[in-house]
From TrEMBL:
This is Glutaminase. Substrate binds at residues 63, 113, 157, 164, 188, 239, 257. Homotetramer. The gene is glsA. The keyword Acetylation applies. It comes from Streptomyces hesseae. InterPro entries: Beta-lactam/transpept-like, Glutaminase. Signal peptide: none annotated.
Length: 303
């Protein structure tokens, strides 16, 4: 596969859509991001990486971090996390309180905000420092020691995080958090504030294409648990548009309101695309189109 040629064709296809959509202006630190940016990278299972456009420019990963925190919880503590969070698509906004109340404090899946808070809480219990544990992992897997938090984004999210605080307190009232709510929120906001490029994210998520093997060949997850992460990404990874994403793209994917999307082709490669303009459901307009075109060109999907 000539990845470079494919990516260039994908970028040409997506170009008319770059700039469409809106940035996540409810997070003030993201409100001023230029929607005219676009990058895409692919990393094969051997760690070779290719990219076009703004593929080496760091951006805020936001909810993409949830896939890594889930993997680290499974690696550290096994599958007991599934006693505290479900694996079903939500069909509701990612910060819904109504659904959480209906289901008695058990989040529908680990990629809505309530579920990610439970996962962060568990990672904090297992490691004593959830956010630094994730940062260290991302630096190691991407091979980039400069991957870091964006303090301005973390502060912005904290100052405008009332809905997340409400979710956390509600779950705490049902006994579904072990750590103090302020601790869980702090680590959650730091995780979402990590800045990475398409290159970094494509490499860092490579363990999901390698069925649980890290970049150095050691095993992070058993094959079964790597499959679980990919499965939940496929059904729940793109907010309440997961069905449409599976229909169009046909790959496990995790998006973030920073405009990034990570996608996995097990046994072959991982992709990351970034374009900050979001559709009404919080997914990158140009990013979804680019991944759709990539699978059309290559014929690769999980189906």
């Amino acid at each position: 596969m000539d990845y470079q040629a494919v990516l260039e064709e994908v970028a040409d296809f997506a170009r008319p859509l770059i700039g469409r959509g809106q940035v996540a202006d409810y997070i003030p630190a993201l409100a001023e991001v230029d929607t005219g940016q676009f990058g895409i990278a692919v990393a094969d299972v051997d760690g070779r990486v290719y990219g076009v456009g703004d593929w080496e420019r760091p951006f805020s990963v936001q909810s993409i971090s949830k896939a890594f925190s889930l993997a680290l919880v499974l690696a550290e503590g096994g599958d007991r996390i599934w006693e505290r969070v479900g694996t079903e698509p939500s069909g509701n906004p990612f910060n819904s309180l109504v659904q959480l109340e209906y289901e008695h404090g058990i989040p529908r899946n680990p990629f809505i905000n309530a579920g990610a808070l439970v996962v962060t809480d568990r990672l904090q219990t297992l490691t004593g420092d959830a956010s630094t544990t994730m940062l260290d992992f991302l630096r190691a897997e991407s091979g980039n020691p400069d991957v870091s938090f964006d303090a301005a984004v973390a502060r912005s999210e904290s100052e405008h995080g009332d809905r997340n605080a409400a979710l956390a307190h509600f779950m705490a009232s049902y006994g579904n958090l072990d750590n103090p709510v302020p601790t869980v929120l702090e680590h959650y906001f730091w995780q979402c504030s990590v800045e990475m490029s398409c290159r970094d994210l494509a490499l860092a998520s490579g363990f999901l294409a390698r069925h649980g093997l890290r970049a150095d060949g050691t095993r992070l997850l058993p094959r079964r648990e790597a499959k679980q992460v990919n499965a939940v990404m496929l059904t729940c990874g793109t907010y309440d548009a997961a069905g449409d994403f599976a229909y169009r793209v046909g790959l496990p994917g995790k998006s973030g309101v920073g405009g990034g999307i990570v996608a996995v082709i097990p046994g072959r490669c991982t992709l990351c695309v970034w374009s900050p303009g979001l559709d009404a459901r919080g997914n990158s307009v140009a990013g979804v189109a680019a991944l759709d075109h990539f699978t059309t060109l290559t014929g690769w999907s999980v189906f």
